Amino acid sequence: MSTSDNPVALGTKSITQLLVQYSVPAIIASVATSLYNIVDSIFIGRGVGPMAIAGLAITFPLMNLVIAFCTLIAVGGATITSIFLGQKNIQRATDVTNNVMSLCLIHSIVFGGLTLIFLDPILYFFGATEETIPYAREFMRIILLGTPIAYVFIGLNNLMRATGYPKKAMISALLSVAVNVVLAPLFIFVFDWGIGGAAFATVCGQFTAFVWVLHHFLSKSSYIHLKFNARWITRSIISRIYSIGMSPFLMNVCACIVVIFINRALLNYGGAEANLAVGAYGIVNRTTMFFVMIVFGVTQGMQPILGYNYGASMWPRVKRTLNIGIWAGVAITFIGFVLTESFPDTISAMFTSDEILIRLARNGFRIYFICYPLVGCQIVIQNFFQSIGKPRLSIFLSLTRQLIFLIPMLVLLPRYYGVDGVWASMAASDMLSFFLAIITLWVMMKRLNRHFDNATPLQTKASQQ
Predict the structure, then answer these.
(1) Does residue 230 contact residue 189 with C-beta atoms inside 8 Å?
(2) Who has the most CB within 10 Å: 38, 182, 206, 444?
(3) Would you write out the chain's pLDDT as a tens digit for each of its 465 residues?
(4) Cα separations (Å) of 303 from 189, 200, 363, 393?
């Protein structure tokens, strides 16, 4: 293993170098993933039609649930692995890898199977209509059949980054995206498979990445790898995985609930344009997630650095990582704010040529993105608490933005402002959750500073870098 791939470097190299080393590959992978979601939507909008965009938007809550049960394992496992590596406990880190593999397979089979059985009632509950459900059903059936492949790929890919291989983790994400982007137009425009072709292209891309990450963890040359004589089901490890992974899990579950409220509000207040209003939200949501995923790339790069140094009691390095991460997160979402406020029609026109859909999306962009620069800071703070093993705070902050503040806004504002109130609800929630995150961070940093000041001095030369 090269020095750059050795997780021990997380406690010795400069924070700036480590963030570049870990975050840049994660950002590239996140951008690629976001782009292929956007490209998928463009192919569907252009190749199938505007109603297919609305059908795709109906699947967002269910897709969030699919991701939720996967990130519960992936993020929890990656965080625990980083902490164990910081404590120089290689055997325990190996046990986590085996448990993550087992849980990914169990979750995917149970969740995917149950969802397939009750797919139509679920989609109707999420806001499907007779016009949109054929598209939503066709897309989700194929995605759900591929959940075992997707879960193992995502779960092990997070562990790959946490165990010192950020570039290989980036390559696996790029492989998935590249295969999907090549196959999607072929399946949609040449084979005329419609929205199902886009879903099948997605599964093919995930299978390619699945083979890549599985090969890595089966290789004995990898720093941490699967061992068949190690523990595959360990109660204490599973408990910690669920505890720490609960924050991103609830974040995705909340996103699912919120999208249901948003879809229903748009259907209730959208009048004759209700289905297209849902489609406009699909365009705005894809664009929003593009910038959010870049911030997630930053937090994914921060996670092993934070976990390792917190586990090793190198508190100054933890604080420096957090400070740089917050500035990076704010810069990313500020760019999103500028672009969407300046060029809403240009962005919408990539997805569709339908003038009504473009007009509805323009209105959504202009209102929703008003407070968007604050989102980057809130996400980084939330993920900071998750990365240092304080899941309750992370869960609390994730709930504020996506549930506690947003749901009441969605109930109240659309009554007075119609569809504009739906967009304004999201902006107001972003602003309130930002202020709460700042206050929570300030209180907790005072406590943590006192804790490490009273601990045994461990501030070596390396910890000051």
Answers:
(1) no
(2) 206
(3) 444 555 567 777 888 888 888 888 878 877 877 777 787 888 888 888 888 888 888 898 888 888 888 888 988 888 888 888 877 887 888 888 888 889 999 999 999 999 999 999 999 988 888 888 999 999 999 999 999 999 999 989 888 887 778 888 888 888 998 898 899 999 999 999 989 999 999 999 999 999 999 988 888 877 777 777 777 788 888 888 898 888 778 778 887 888 888 988 998 898 878 888 988 998 998 899 889 989 988 998 888 888 888 878 888 888 899 999 999 999 999 999 999 999 999 999 888 888 888 999 999 999 999 999 999 999 999 989 888 878 788 888 888 877 889 989 999 999 999 999 999 999 999 999 999 999 999 998 888 888 777 754 444 433 334
(4) 40, 32, 36, 16
DSSP of 56-98, one letter per residue?
A: HHHTHHHHHHHHHHHHHHHHHHHHHHHHHHHTT-HHHHHHHHH
**Alpha carbon distance 206, 143 (integer Å):** 10
Q: In the numeric block, which tokens belong to residue 242?
A: 């669920």
Sole residue written with tokens 């390559």: 171
Structure tokens at 59: 């699947």
The tokens of 354 are what?
């339908």
Angle at 40 between CA 37 and CA 42, to 5 degrees: 110
At 134, the amino acid letter reads P
DSSP string spanning 330-396? HHHHHHHHHHHHH-HHHHHHHH---HHHHHHHHHHHHHHGGGTHHHHHHHHHHHHHHHTT-HHHHHH
User: In whole angstroms, what is the distance from residue 355 CA to residue 368 CA?
Assistant: 20
The answer, as to whether pTM is greater than 0.85, is no
| DSSP states along 191-242 | S--HHHHHHHHHHHHHHHHHHHHHHHHH-TTSSS---TTS-S--HHHHHHHH
